[in-house]
Amino acid sequence: MKALVKEKAEPGLWLMDVPEPAVGPGDVLIKVLRTGICGTDLHIRSWDGWAQQAIRTPLVIGHEFVGEVVDTGRDVADIKAGDLVSGEGHLVCGKCRNCLAGRRHLCRATVGLGVGRDGAFAEYVALPASNVWVHRVPVDLDVAAIFDPFGNAVHTALSFPLVNEDVLITGAGPIGLMAAAVAKHAGARHVVVTDVSEERLELARKIGAHLALDVSRTSIADGQRELGLREGFDVGLEMSGNPAALREMIANMTHGGKIAMLGLPAEEFPVDWSRIVTSMITLKGIYGREMYETWYAMTVLLEGGLDLAPVITGRYGYRDFEAAFADAASGTGGKVILDWTA
């Protein structure tokens, strides 16, 4: 089968013929239809410091996908050939304290699809049945392909109550954009998104943000004044991993404000801990999705009319992966999709 492979420990990706994955007793074999390009895939392609430590070559990359089940192992009961499925990309041990307590997203032995084991940028991928999400209601294939990052957005946005709250989102990348759509759909009073890319800020406006701020020109405090906010934001969703963004978020939160952090910084940096303490601000780190509460929430949000179409800005056949990755790396668009049927 064809697959995108990190064949060598150097920058680049290679479209190669590789064997189809084996299917164990509890596994599901899936014919991949669409995949989404993630920031993780960009790191692996560029072979940066994180990738050099995390990846062993050769490796089939990719973890955002939708596909059709073509085969199941003998112990799989509730999934059948022909089912349309997406996959939870975090494979957990099932034996640790958190797994046994039903908190699988907190497993310390998590292995990432397309990072710690061969992934989904291929014509076929195999996953344990427990990691397969069957789409029981109709869903657009492009949207189903990005259920993994959509889950990151939902997990982050719904960490705290949002009804009638004023929400600040720093970072208008694809996950920040989806979080903005979720926050508005969930009943936030104001949703403010910040970035320095005018193209992405325009996407934030299309997705329904009440205010999209270019923070290279306009401060968050100015945004507060424009909206008539007197005490700051109630909820912050930090999606950028940028030190200045988090510092500005902390400075503009109301007393008792709550911040969920998904953005992953490249290195350690200082923040105003005195402000956090005296303003009684809650900080919560987010990684991945709650298994599988977040997946239920995603499905229900889409059934309820949440529209993610504006977030998807690039579509390519898998043979045009170089152009697709260049598009995704430009930092000006939303999600980029690879079609594995083209």
From TrEMBL:
<comment type="pathway">
    <text>Amino-acid degradation; L-threonine degradation via oxydo-reductase pathway; glycine from L-threonine: step 1/2.</text>
</comment>
<dbReference type="InterPro" id="IPR036291">
    <property type="entry name" value="NAD(P)-bd_dom_sf"/>
</dbReference>
<comment type="subunit">
    <text>Homotetramer.</text>
</comment>
<comment type="function">
    <text>Catalyzes the oxidation of 2-deoxy-scyllo-inosamine (DOIA) with NAD(+) or NADP(+), forming 3-amino-2,3-dideoxy-scyllo-inosose (amino-DOI).</text>
</comment>
<dbReference type="InterPro" id="IPR004627">
    <property type="entry name" value="L-Threonine_3-DHase"/>
</dbReference>
<feature type="binding site">
    <location>
        <position position="93"/>
    </location>
    <ligand>
        <name>Zn(2+) 2</name>
    </ligand>
</feature>
<dbReference type="InterPro" id="IPR050129">
    <property type="entry name" value="Zn_alcohol_dh"/>
</dbReference>
<feature type="binding site">
    <location>
        <position position="63"/>
    </location>
    <ligand>
        <name>Zn(2+) 1</name>
    </ligand>
</feature>
<dbReference type="GO" id="GO:0008270">
    <property type="term" value="F:zinc ion binding"/>
</dbReference>
<dbReference type="Pfam" id="PF00107">
    <property type="entry name" value="ADH_zinc_N"/>
</dbReference>
<keyword id="KW-0963">Cytoplasm</keyword>
<feature type="site" description="Important for catalytic activity for the proton relay mechanism but does not participate directly in the coordination of zinc atom">
    <location>
        <position position="148"/>
    </location>
</feature>
<comment type="similarity">
    <text>Belongs to the zinc-containing alcohol dehydrogenase family. DOIA dehydrogenase subfamily.</text>
</comment>
<feature type="binding site">
    <location>
        <position position="96"/>
    </location>
    <ligand>
        <name>Zn(2+) 2</name>
    </ligand>
</feature>
<feature type="binding site">
    <location>
        <position position="195"/>
    </location>
    <ligand>
        <name>NAD(+)</name>
    </ligand>
</feature>
<feature type="binding site">
    <location>
        <begin position="262"/>
        <end position="264"/>
    </location>
    <ligand>
        <name>NAD(+)</name>
    </ligand>
</feature>
<dbReference type="Pfam" id="PF08240">
    <property type="entry name" value="ADH_N"/>
</dbReference>
<comment type="function">
    <text>Catalyzes the NAD(+)-dependent oxidation of L-threonine to 2-amino-3-ketobutyrate.</text>
</comment>
<feature type="domain" description="Alcohol dehydrogenase-like N-terminal">
    <location>
        <begin position="24"/>
        <end position="133"/>
    </location>
</feature>
<dbReference type="GO" id="GO:0005737">
    <property type="term" value="C:cytoplasm"/>
</dbReference>
<feature type="active site" description="Charge relay system">
    <location>
        <position position="40"/>
    </location>
</feature>
<feature type="binding site">
    <location>
        <position position="175"/>
    </location>
    <ligand>
        <name>NAD(+)</name>
    </ligand>
</feature>
<feature type="binding site">
    <location>
        <position position="64"/>
    </location>
    <ligand>
        <name>Zn(2+) 1</name>
    </ligand>
</feature>
<feature type="binding site">
    <location>
        <position position="107"/>
    </location>
    <ligand>
        <name>Zn(2+) 2</name>
    </ligand>
</feature>
<feature type="binding site">
    <location>
        <position position="99"/>
    </location>
    <ligand>
        <name>Zn(2+) 2</name>
    </ligand>
</feature>
<keyword id="KW-0862">Zinc</keyword>
<dbReference type="GO" id="GO:0008743">
    <property type="term" value="F:L-threonine 3-dehydrogenase activity"/>
</dbReference>
<keyword id="KW-0520">NAD</keyword>
<feature type="binding site">
    <location>
        <position position="38"/>
    </location>
    <ligand>
        <name>Zn(2+) 1</name>
    </ligand>
</feature>
<feature type="domain" description="Alcohol dehydrogenase-like C-terminal">
    <location>
        <begin position="174"/>
        <end position="300"/>
    </location>
</feature>
<keyword id="KW-0560">Oxidoreductase</keyword>
<dbReference type="InterPro" id="IPR011032">
    <property type="entry name" value="GroES-like_sf"/>
</dbReference>
<dbReference type="InterPro" id="IPR002328">
    <property type="entry name" value="ADH_Zn_CS"/>
</dbReference>
<comment type="pathway">
    <text>Metabolic intermediate biosynthesis; 2-deoxystreptamine biosynthesis; 2-deoxystreptamine from D-glucose 6-phosphate: step 3/4.</text>
</comment>
<dbReference type="InterPro" id="IPR013154">
    <property type="entry name" value="ADH-like_N"/>
</dbReference>
<dbReference type="InterPro" id="IPR013149">
    <property type="entry name" value="ADH-like_C"/>
</dbReference>
<keyword id="KW-0479">Metal-binding</keyword>
<feature type="binding site">
    <location>
        <begin position="286"/>
        <end position="287"/>
    </location>
    <ligand>
        <name>NAD(+)</name>
    </ligand>
</feature>
<dbReference type="GO" id="GO:0019518">
    <property type="term" value="P:L-threonine catabolic process to glycine"/>
</dbReference>
<protein>
    <recommendedName>
        <fullName>L-threonine 3-dehydrogenase</fullName>
        <ecNumber>1.1.1.103</ecNumber>
    </recommendedName>
</protein>
<feature type="active site" description="Charge relay system">
    <location>
        <position position="43"/>
    </location>
</feature>
<feature type="binding site">
    <location>
        <position position="200"/>
    </location>
    <ligand>
        <name>NAD(+)</name>
    </ligand>
</feature>
